[in-house]
Specification:
There is one protein chain. The protein is built from 13 helices and 16 strands. It folds into two domains: 260 residues, Aspartate Aminotransferase, domain 2; 66 residues, Aspartate Aminotransferase, domain 1. It is globular, with a radius of gyration of 22 Å. A seven-stranded mixed β-sheet has the order 4-10-9-8-7-5-6, with helices on both faces. Helix 3 packs antiparallel against helix 10 and helix 10 crosses helix 13. The protein has 447 residues and is of the alpha/beta class. The chain is 37% helix and 17% strand.
Length: 447
């Protein structure tokens, strides 16, 4: 076990996990909460500060999940808390659907000014990533007059009916909910680690795009019926998969040839997580529409669907949200945005590079690590039974996640067999070292 547990910026485990208070809460939870929730381990959170989460028994954990990549500025950042307190004392709600908020305009201006491509944008505010994707789907259909979509295998875009129709991450997410929205076709997303033998990553990416034209468009899907191609620049729930750089550019060219809109889901990979404000910036591609949520407001419910100004041409009443763009959530988002631009995007880039450098030799040192990949603080570690066969090891991945929890490190799985590292963008080198050292210790136990 790692030694220096007296420090407030590192974990400190006082009880067996879960502790007695946590066990009591979990028992009550199981009696009244929906069984559809997924809990990877028995953490019962009580308070958070920075990168540390404390449970109801006083155990402290280092949070490398950030509430599923949401707490971008850490837990209860004082500038975000101050912005929330100041706004909530003035006005909590009037509904931006029917009235006007100045801070709503201000944040939309900031998003428009910093959006990829430097083109004029309009912004629609909702409450969650799945709402942002629903809005993107409706807008694409409205603007193009077309009704079909292309999404990708491994994609996760949300669980409401439209977004779920795009999602192709886990069968359990779709089972029992059909029929879903018709007219969604799924193509292959290029995985450099699992590309065909003897094929370069770039050629594999090209083949995935060409298959859309040569297979889908020739055999079953007239391209002039496709409203949008919807893609994550980096697949999140699919396993933190980073496509070759040419993939998104080739996809943009295909979309342009056929008058199809290009929609980026940046719900998880946006807002500075990759070391740039938007993941699209790494690939030099300008989406027509893109969606943001998760890290946008440091934990308050907010999402944004951001489109080229000429595309967002639907009339009053075509789409709206009672709570979307709530003034308190917007205040948190403005404080978050300022922190990101001032220092945290740069910290994500620097600390992400540091962690990746420390992880780089894991495949050589640990036979169950097949691949390490990442941009900024969006890092995936692929766990396999055997490096040669690349056979996925989901049970071992889950065991490693539990072992990390028992040692005070909060991480989550991604995809079938990857561990994701998605900490708040405020992490220090000492906290990064603790996380990597803990993962090393866990892997040694399972070697």
């Amino acid at each position: 076990m790692l030694s220096d547990t007296a420090r407030l910026d590192l974990p400190h485990i006082l009880t067996a996990l879960p502790g007695p208070r946590a066990r009591a809460v979990i028992e009550r939870d199981q009696a009244v909460l929906s069984p559809s929730y997924t809990r990877s381990y028995p953490l019962v959170a009580s308070r958070g500060e920075g990168v540390i989460v404390e449970d109801v028994d006083g155990n402290r954990f280092l949070d490398f999940s950030a509430g599923i990549a949401v707490a971008s500025t850490g837990h209860c950042h004082p500038e975000v808390v101050e912005a929330i307190e100041r706004q909530s004392a003035r006005l909590i709600h009037m509904s931006g659907t029917d009235f006007y908020y100045e801070n709503m305009v201000e944040f939309a201006e900031k998003l428009s000014a910093t959006a990829p491509g430097g083109v004029p944008r309009r912004v629609y505010f909702g409450n969650s990533g799945t709402e942002a994707m629903e809005a993107a789907m409706k807008l694409a259909r409205f603007h193009t007059g077309r009704d079909k979509f292309i999404a990708f295998r491994g994609a996760f875009h949300g669980r409401t009916m439209g977004a779920l129709s795009l999602t192709a991450s886990k069968a359990v997410q779709r089972k029992g909910f059909g029929p879903l929205i018709p007219g969604v076709f799924h193509a292959h997303y290029p995985d450099p680690y699992r590309r065909p033998a003897g094929v370069s990553a770039e050629d594999h990416a090209m083949a995935c795009v060409h298959a859309i034209e040569e297979d889908l468009f020739r055999r079953m899907l007239p391209p002039d019926e496709v409203a949008a191609i919807v893609v994550e620049p980096i697949q999140g729930e699919g396993g933190y998969i980073i496509p070759p750089k040419n993939f998104l550019g080739e996809l943009a060219s295909l979309a342009e040839r056929h008058g199809i809109l290009l929609v980026f889901d940046e719900v998880q990979c946006g807002m500075g997580r990759t070391g740039k404000l938007w993941a699209a910036e790494h690939f030099g591609v300008t989406p027509d529409i893109f969606a943001s949520a998760k890290g946008i407001a440091s934990g308050l419910p907010l999402s944004a669907t951001i489109a080229r100004a000429g595309i967002m041409n639907w009339p009053a009443g075509a789409h709206a949200s009672t709570f979307g763009g709530n003034p308190v959530a917007i205040a948190a988002a403005l404080a978050t945005f300022d922190l990101l631009q001032r220092e945290l995007i740069a910290n994500a880039a620097g600390m992400g590079a540091y962690i990746l450098d420390r992880l780089r030799d894991f495949p050589r040192r640990f036979p169950h690590v097949g691949d390490v990949r990442g941009l900024g603080l969006m890092i995936g570690i692929e766990i396999v039974h055997d490096q040669e066969s690349k056979e996925r090891a989901p049970e071992l991945r889950d065991r490693l996640v539990t072992l990390a929890f028992e040692r005070g490190l909060l991480v989550l799985g991604a995809g079938r067999n990857a561990i994701r590292l998605s900490p708040p963008l405020i992490i220090t080198r000492d906290q990064a070292d603790f996380a990597v050292d803990t993962l090393e210790e866990c892997l040694k136990l399972e070697a």
